[in-house]
Amino acid sequence: MATTKIWDVKAHVSKLLAYVANKNKTTMELEVKSDNEAENLAAEILGLPPEHFLHEEKKFVTGINCTPENANEVMLTLLEGTSPSNIQAYHGYQSFKPSEVTPDVAHAIGVQLANELWGEDFPVIVATHIDKGHVHNHFCLSASGFSGKRYHDCNATYKLMRDTSDRLCREYGLSVIENPSKDRHKHIAEVHAEKKGIPTMRDQIRADIDAAAKQEFIIKNFYNRMRSLGYTIEQRGNFLRIKPYGYDKFFRLDKLGAGYTEEDIEARIRNNARAHQWTPIKYYEPTLREKPRGLYALYLHYCYLLGVIPKFIPKNPEAYAAIKEDVRRARMYSEQAKFLGKYFLDTKDDLIQHALKVRAQMDVLYKERQKLRNKMRWMKDPAEMQPIREQIFAISDKLKPLRKEYAMCKDIYDRSDDIEKTVERVEFPQIVQQAREEKKSKDDRKDR
Fold this sequence. Notes:
Helices cover 55% and strands 13% of the residues.
C-alpha cells in the first residue's frame, strides 16, 4: 500500500536537494566479510565480534537525466530563460506500508516510477529515506524540462502518478488501496485533537450546520440562520467558505468532510422539504406546561442570573454575536480573578515575577521535549519510538496549562495600564480635567 503526493517548491533548489539526498536519511551500513577465507573461518571459530568484519555504506540515491552531484547545476540551467514563475522545482513522495517493503525494493519502485512519469524530459533525483519507522521515497523534479516546457501539476498528472504507483506496487506484490476515501486529508492538529478527544473548530462548524440544516426548507433561510449564529459566509471563486465570529480564518465547506459541500447541504434541505410535504397535519392540542420545581428550578434560576440563559432573544445577528462575546469575556475575567487570588498577585511586580517563573518552567520543558525529539530522529523501530512519543505527549500536556497562565499574565499586564487610567479619571476628575486644559492651552500657544 503506497500513498503519493506532489507539491511545488518556491525556495532554492539546493535546499530541496540537500533534504532529499541527506546522507543520514538515505544511507544504510552493511557488514561484509573479508575476502580472505582463512580470516573468515578463524573469525567464525573464535566467535569474534562484528568489528572484525568490513563495513560498507549503501546509499539509496539515484539521478535520472542527471547525477546527484550536478543535479543543482542542471536544474538551475534549465530554469533560465523559461517562464518567470517563482516555482523552482516539485517535491513528491511515495510512502509504503510499514514493514511491507525493503529499502532495495522501494528504491527500485521509485526509480521506475520516476522514469515512466518524467524520464523523457525532466531531470529527477530519487532518494529512499530509511530513517523513520516506514520506508518512503522522495522525488526532486525540475520545474523545467530539456524541451523548454515546464511541468504542469494538475489533477490529471497527479492521477497518473497515483495510478502508476498502484500498478507498480501490484507488480511487486505489494498491497494497494482499492477504495480510497473521498474525504479530504485532515489537518495534523485536528488528527491529534481527535486522538485526545478534544473538540475542534471544524467540529463546532459541522454541528452548527447540522442543526441549521435540520430546521430549514429553503437554502436562503439556511444561510440566514448561519449568519444569525455569528458566521460570515462568502463566495471565493468556485468555493463557498465560512468563518465563525471572532475567528480570523475562513473554512471552505468542501474541506469540512463528506456531506458538507454546498451541493450536499442543498440536497439535505430539499429532503427536508419533501419529508415535510408528506408529514400528516397534527392538530394543536393545548396542554398545561408543568412548572419546574425543586432543585431543577433553582438551577434554572441561577443560570438566568449568571447570564447562561439569555434574558431576551435577539432579533439580529450582531446582537447575538455581542452576547456571545460578552459571555466569553465574563468567563475570561472570572478565570483571571481566580488566577490572581490563587497566587496572591496584588501588584505588577508580583505578576511579572510569577510570569518569569512560569516562563522558566516552560523553557525547561521545551528543552526536555526537544531532546526527546532529537533522540527519536535516529530511531527506526516504531516499537522503540512509541514510549518516547508518549513522553513527548505528556510534556505537551504539562505545557498547555503553563502557556495558558503565561498568556493570562500578559493579558492582565497589558490591560492594567488602561484600568489605572480609568480609575484616575473616576477618582480624580478635577486633576484629569486640569491636565487636559493645560495641554489644550499649550497646543493653542503652539498654533499662534
